[in-house]
Write a structure and sequence with these properties.
The protein is α/β, with parallel strands linked by helices. 55% of the residues lie in helices and 14% in strands. The structure holds BIS(adenosine)-5'-pentaphosphate (AP5) and magnesium ion.
Length: 191
């Protein structure tokens, strides 16, 4: 058995994945891998990959699987001594989940658990519109784009609950409350 802790922090746009990752990496010494943040860094540097991703992200669509799988593979290899990872916003499709499993299987360090933050759509839209006032994120500015991100999640990403349930790794966590309350719920789910 591996003693590494590899957590998939799951949930729709605005569920609090990024916010909660900050606390969990401190408590457990994990490396935070957010494909959204990695993509926004590529956009900022105006790389070809960033330019390809920007158009899709601004519309609230997912970027192609091969783009994010390549980024995650590089990061896992770059941090091979880490005590474990928090995957935030990845995997988002079945193809991504299968690739992640095979990357980790080759190192005998499987996913420990998928923790899914559960938040209603009206609360998600409220949080993201509020963040859009200051975040500078193009995909937070417009309610139609926010709702499209949620539709993409429901269509392509939510089915991963079944993928991880079948492995006995899925745990739903109430994502509404104060940030500290939710951190405590996640920590007790990690055990
Ligand atoms: P990504 O960056 O992953 O964005 P997202 O999934 O849309 O989620 P957010 O980052 O907006 O929300 P979050 O759950 O992290 O919540 P946060 O903590 O920020 O992806 C962006 C885009 O990149 C995608 O649309 C896609 O195009 C592309 N992409 C990324 N990964 C991909 C992949 N694997 N495959 C394909 N494409 C990919 O919190 C949200 C707000 O709520 C904040 O303002 C926060 O302060 C507030 N908040 C947090 N907790 C609480 C609370 N308890 N109560 C009240 N407010 C709270
Ligand atoms: Mg995020």
């Amino acid at each position: 058995m591996s003693n590494k802790l590899n957590i998939v922090l799951f949930g729709p746009p605005g569920a609090g994945k990024g916010t909660q990752s900050e606390f969990l990496i401190k408590q457990h010494g994990l490396v935070h891998l957010s494909t959204g943040e990695l993509l926004r860094a590529e956009i900022k540097e105006e790389t070809p990959l960033g330019m390809e991703a920007k158009e899709l992200m601004d519309m609230g669509e997912l970027v192609p699987d091969h783009v994010v799988i390549g980024m995650i593979r590089n990061c896992i290899e770059a941090h091979h001594n880490a005590p474990g990872f928090i995957f935030d916003g990845f995997p988002r499709t079945k193809a991504q989940a299968e690739s992640l499993d095979s990357m980790l299987a080759s190192k005998s360090e499987p996913i420990t658990a998928m923790l899914a933050l559960e938040v209603s759509e009206s609360e998600l839209v409220k949080r993201l519109l509020k963040r859009g006032e200051t975040s500078g994120r193009a995909d937070d500015k417009n309610e139609d784009v926010i709702r499209n991100r949620i539709r993409e999640y429901e269509k392509k990403t939510a089915p991963l609950k079944d993928y991880y349930s079948a492995q006995g790794k899925y745990k739903g966590v109430n994502g509404v409350g104060t940030i500290a309350e939710i951190t405590a719920r996640l920590s007790s789910a990690i055990g």
